[in-house]
């Protein structure tokens, strides 16, 4: 990204103080609280974190598809400097697909079981690009090949249920990319895929960022994929950002105790262990998030202040972490180790 | 696997035995279209003649490219699909025979690859998790059932109060945990896990894998495990089967497979694992086109992508041969020209 002009380096996507609420019979749940980050053109932001932390919810808010009764209660979302969180439904629908491509975690909700995959691709292409149906069909086959569907020309007239889980996932990826959007929100795009196809999809995403300046928000649990693809990483916990920073720093030298616990849980590839490292306990339920730091019931470094006061993102060397250990005013400081201010678990 | 589980298994038939099983699908276009285009019937050989056995209290994992037939094997193993050829024997009884009914089925459960499609959206989580208990008439007392469900939800990192909610109120990984709790509810002896942790973050994944290992140690559970994540596979497996285009190409003890992979496809698979160390190493995807299971290549199905392929490979399909503790289907290995 070093050769991009100053204008292109301005953020393509900006999320400011986003708060998403779910009114329920048992009271209002806050699913996202004060989430802020940005993504530049040509940049990949990886998003990781506890299952249920709000990663998909963040993606859904950006593409304007929060499931009711969920709603944006505070904050704003800007694409290229323009607010998109308050657009009329029809206008947002046009931005989705053309400007923003979405790859959902659940391939079955994206694919219509009644239509062939070819027809679905062709329709998306015709909606957004000036092409004849024959051109659109050729384009659809091209995209199926790009995502590695064997015998694409033969299988384009298949129905979704005739494909394996990973093949359906690839069709969803093709659907999101075929109109050549500027921002791709990809929620677990490679989870159902084998390592080889995964490598191919990642190479494809990287090529799009390099050659077309596409910005990507990549939600995944696969740290290997993050390490290879992302420029920066955001770690989420209980509806908030726990840490955000350059990929190497966050993965190799995390500053937030939750990030550190998460990275320590990555199963080793080079040996078999009796018991995998894990973070004991569970993330608090949305209805019972504690007053101070949401991580304190599980945190090995917890001290007084954590139980009463909620930390915002604080500068922590090269990353920013929502943890009181990094506040010079705290009575307790980072347990320093050889790698700078890395927190150890 | 613990020694007690192993000694219990001695002398008994394997928990599951799959003998030369095949499953084909008819993927022809509708008759009229077919006549117009003058094309014949098309058969897709999702699984084409595979054999393996899983001793009690052990874990066999299946790995291989997307679409190679792993989920189809999983469904055959619990009797959700009938076989086109061959037999599936569960604890000594052929699954397709009449005897293998409710009594057999309650001893096996499956965690499905797709946690969305497999949870009934109109049921509360409590009823979803308790469904196997009700189906098999276990724990007829409602309070006892609810207590059991609460324990199961806690075991998978959710809370008993989550039982009152509906599936759409949960994230992807939380739904996957619900389906794990359901599969465990009837205390099965044999569990088929199709990508059970793919939607989970690594920390919850570690909790679930530790739970599965713990259940195996304490209760001698038998697992058929499917995952694309080879690091996860290494942590849970006793033996690993590598599939390619509907067939097993290598079957070996887990550590042997990782330390000394023999089949050229297995080796290529290991090369393609993502690199966490950010050395900038370019991953080497398995080269060449993934062949179509509708018209597989002649001879060895891997030959168009194999660096060791020769004329014999294009002509003759390799059978399984033994090489140490490994079973492998490759002419080059058999001829000893894989290590030159
Ligand atoms: N319709 C809903 N009603 C109430 N709560 C909801 C609803 N949908 C999601 N939630 C809650 O919002 C939280 C965030 O969910 P989200 O799907 O964003 O998690 P996630 O980080 O994507 O997790 P995963 O990694 O498991 O996919 C979860 O705790 C979930 O239970
Ligand atoms: N009901 C069906 N009708 C037609 N074809 C099918 C059906 N189910 C599976 N197939 C085909 O059989 C092959 C094997 O599918 P299967 O789901 O077993 O693959 P898999 O190894 O589990 O892949 P993945 O890793 O993507 O889940 C695929 O080519 C798939 O398209
Ligand atoms: S603020 Fe306190 S409890 Fe929270 S992560 Fe930091 S040290 Fe742990
Ligand atoms: S049989 Fe031949 S083509 Fe097949 S894997 Fe072995 S060497 Fe390669
Ligand atoms: Mg999600
Ligand atoms: Mg599958």
From TrEMBL, chain A:
GO molecular function: ATP binding; ATP hydrolysis activity
GO biological process terms, semicolon-separated: peptide transport; transmembrane transport
Pfam family membership, one: oligo_HPY
Subcellular location: Cell inner membrane
Gene3D superfamilies: P-loop containing nucleotide triphosphate hydrolases (3.40.50.300)
Membrane-related topology note: Peripheral membrane protein
Any GO CC annotation of this UniProt entry: plasma membrane
Entry superkingdom: Bacteria
Family membership: Belongs to the ABC transporter superfamily.
Descriptive protein name: Methionine ABC transporter ATP-binding protein
Species whose genome carries this gene: Teichococcus rhizosphaerae
From TrEMBL, chain B:
PROSITE patterns for the chain: ABC_TRANSPORTER_1, ABC_TRANSPORTER_2
Domain annotation ABC transporter: ranges: 16-270
Membrane topology, record value: Peripheral membrane protein
Biological processes per GO annotation: peptide transport; transmembrane transport
InterPro entries: AAA+_ATPase, ABC_transp_ATP-bind, ABC_transporter-like_ATP-bd, ABC_transporter-like_CS, Oligopep_ABC_C, P-loop_NTPase
Gene3D superfamilies assigned to the protein according to its UniProt record, in alphabetical order: P-loop containing nucleotide triphosphate hydrolases
Chief location of this protein within or outside the cell: membrane
Gene Ontology molecular function: ATP binding; ATP hydrolysis activity
Subcellular location: Cell inner membrane
One GO location term (cellular component): plasma membrane
Keywords linked to the UniProt accession: ATP-binding, Nucleotide-binding, Transport
Pfam families: ABC_tran, oligo_HPY
Family: Belongs to the ABC transporter superfamily.
NCBIfam families: oligo_HPY (TIGR01727)
PANTHER family: D,D-DIPEPTIDE TRANSPORT ATP-BINDING PROTEIN DDPF-RELATED (PTHR43776:SF7), TRANSPORT ATP-BINDING PROTEIN (PTHR43776)
Name this polypeptide is given: ABC transporter ATP-binding protein
Lineage, opening ranks: Bacteria, Pseudomonadati, Pseudomonadota, Alphaproteobacteria, Acetobacterales
